[in-house]
Amino acid sequence: MKSYLIAFFFICTFSNSQSLLKETTQINDSVDYYLEIASFNKEDKHSFNKAIIYSEKAIHYAKKKKIDEKLPNCYLILGSIYYDLEKTDTAIENFIRSINLYKGKEPKASLALAYYSLGKCYLEKNKVELSEIYFKKASEIYEKLNFTDAIQLINTQKGIIQKNKKDYDNAISIFSSVINNITNDAFIGTKIEAYYQIGEIEIINKHYEEAITNFEIALKLNEENSGNIQLQKKILKQLSLTHKNNNDFNKSQAYLEKYVAIVDSLGNYYNHSLTESTFDKIQFDKQLKTIEQLDKDKKIQQRSLRFNKLISILSIALISILSLLSLSLYKNNKIRISTNKLLKEKNKELTIEKNKAERASKARAEFLATVSHELRTPLNAINGITYLLLNEKPKATQLNYLKSLEFSGKYLLAFINDILEINRLESDKVLVEQINFNLPELIENIKTSFNEFIEENNINFHLLIDKSIEPNIIGDPTKISQIIINLVNNAIKFSKNGDVWLSIKKKDDFDNKVVLSFEVKDNGIGIPKEKQATIFESFSQGSVEVNRTYGGTGLGLSIVKKIVEILGSEIYLESDTDKGTSLKFDLTFKKGKEEVKEIAENISKENLVLGKKKKILLVEDNKINQMITQKMLEQKGIPCFTIDNGEEAIEHLKNNEYDLILMDVHLPGINGTEATLEIRKFNPTIPIIALTAISLNENREMLLSYGMDEVIMKPFVPEEFYEILYLFLSKTEE
């Protein structure tokens, strides 16, 4: 079904862009021209680089000429390109921008498409609740526009969501409704998919006969109507597996042979330009082209309703007859009711215990979120004031005190971040990214970041990377970095005046995947045998003396173990007192491809001049944070005006112009997100950067959805703060 969704998105995006570009009889401005070229490169030439370039040119031209009505369509098309490239996060940002610019206008198909596309992105990221919200919004608009067939396609996705949630009864109900509501052969592929999904649910429920029945109906419909080879292959594979589970090995073998024959033929037929998703795209194209015709046939279908009513009356009569026969089962029902009563009582007890456990877990998460927020706010003041004092050339006698205060602030921040990272990893909301990255370059950057620490501890650092490893792989570079940084940091800390080895070797190589073996080894103090069983537990270190001597939170190895398990592997420890420690783990990656790197623009000096020409509005209720932020801006020569609540900020901006807004999220009265929504109603372009001591109930994507352009988390690092500030100030110069 995933391939159907991608194909549907392809067609909708392209059809929508075409209709937008043909609203007039001729191309009358450069926005339409750029979008036409972008669509041509994406759809016909599959040149995504050029498609992105021309989409960006369209956005730039629309902003320059103030053609605001074109901007939502530009972001919608750009989001679709990034979605095709599997850059889901970037696609989400563009779809959110498109939706925000559509808001306030009459509902139309393009807005519904944006909601639908955003829902698919969140479904890709396994954020089911968010995807359901946006699918619902898309469905409401299609209902207003009377696009009934598009609604059935969305309903199929809703059924898949319920299936993934293990709400199988609801999922079957939705798929059955889709089957009953599609009577036109042009949409037979959607009906086939519904039968297939019901079959998979019946396998889960171990109802193999029912599963086989649904798969055979799907196979028959496909052979008689659709002729979708990829779908036929999928159904044959499931039929073979289901007959095997049902101990009918002859039929299992027969369906398996048909499946293998199709796979062999597909291997000779398809190439890189005609994939399964492309094939599905063609089928959906045929379906969507019939929507207009189906709307015209609506009156004819209404006539058939009379016949359906007659069938319903006959069905009711049949049900009544069957109800009379069911009276003979009365005695058996009494026994079943008694058994069910006992089961309900047990289920009630289990539900009570489950609710208690969930409340305890929720209470812990909320406590950590509250503590994090309450600690980050004063910690921002401590780190900020320390930074300002260090920049004011303190006396030599004061410098050591300030350095100690700076170290303590950074240590406390690291401690808070470690606690929150443990809590996040223990939740079920951790997603593993699949990004193309250069592994040797990543490892070299990590090693460079440790150079000062290595020199302080007089360490001989040995970096050994197998030269046969292809540099580009597909995986989660952020989580790999977390693992390596924690392990190397421990190795250096516990091996003063010693040696540390970081080695990466190729363990296996097959098809388009590679298995790499990682090892971080040292010849330091080692870990006693009796402590090794608990060393991966939270807040666990070798001994009290180790904690006093070397410091640390005792969370590093716990974080490493959880991340390695999330990546589908295990970590192994070998250690002995005074002989050193070795930590090993294996990870499997898809092979990547080399990417052309763009040279980063050095804007620090340019922006230093830019900043002096700009005006910034700071919306912050905390007086200490006001003083710190103002002082940091003044050091760079940037004028700043401060307001301490959202209501006054909204009224002030209606009569005054600024180049950028720094918006605290938690404000008295209306909060920062609500204030941003109001500001976007009359000023959609001014950059708004959120300042927040971010909690578990907040996230970057949520804040961006309110119209904010970037998020800076308190306590912020001054260098990162200035870099983000100058980036957006430089954009307003254009």
Instruction: Work out the radius of gyration.
Output: 31 Å
What is the CA–CA distance across the termini?
A: 44 Å
Based on Cα principal axes, name the global outline. globular
What share of residues are in beta strands? 5-15%
Low-confidence stretches: 1-28, 268-286, 547-551, 598-609
Structural class: alpha/beta
Overall pLDDT metric: 78
What does this structure look like?
Helix 27 (672-682) links the parallel strand 10 (660-664) and strand 11 (688-692). The protein is α/β, with parallel strands linked by helices. Helix 12 runs antiparallel to helix 13. The protein contains 29 helices and 12 strands. Strands 1, 2, 3, 4, 5, 6 and 7 form a 7-stranded mixed β-sheet that branches.
Distinctive features:
about 725 residues, alpha/beta, 5-stranded parallel beta sheet, 12 strands, globular, disordered N terminus
Write a concise synopsis of the structure shown.
This protein has 734 residues and is an alpha/beta fold. It is 65% helix and 10% strand.
Summarize the SSE layout with pairings.
Elements: H1 2-21, H2 30-43, H3 48-64, H4 71-84, H5 88-102, H6 109-124, H7 128-144, H8 148-164, H9 168-181, H10 188-204, H11 208-226, H12 229-245, H13 249-269, H14 276-289, H15 291-296, H16 298-325, H17 330-390, H18 396-426, E1 435-438, H19 439-449, H20 451-456, E2 460-465, E3 472-475, H21 477-493, E4 499-510, E5 513-522, H22 544-550, H23 556-566, E6 571-576, E7 580-591, H24 604-611, E8 616-619, H25 623-635, E9 640-643, H26 646-655, E10 660-664, H27 672-682, E11 688-692, H28 700-705, E12 710-713, H29 718-733
Helix pairs in contact: 1-2, 1-4, 1-6, 1-14, 2-3, 3-4, 4-5, 4-6, 5-6, 6-7, 7-8, 8-9, 8-10, 9-10, 10-11, 10-12, 11-12, 12-13, 17-18, 17-25, 18-23, 19-21, 21-23, 24-29, 26-27
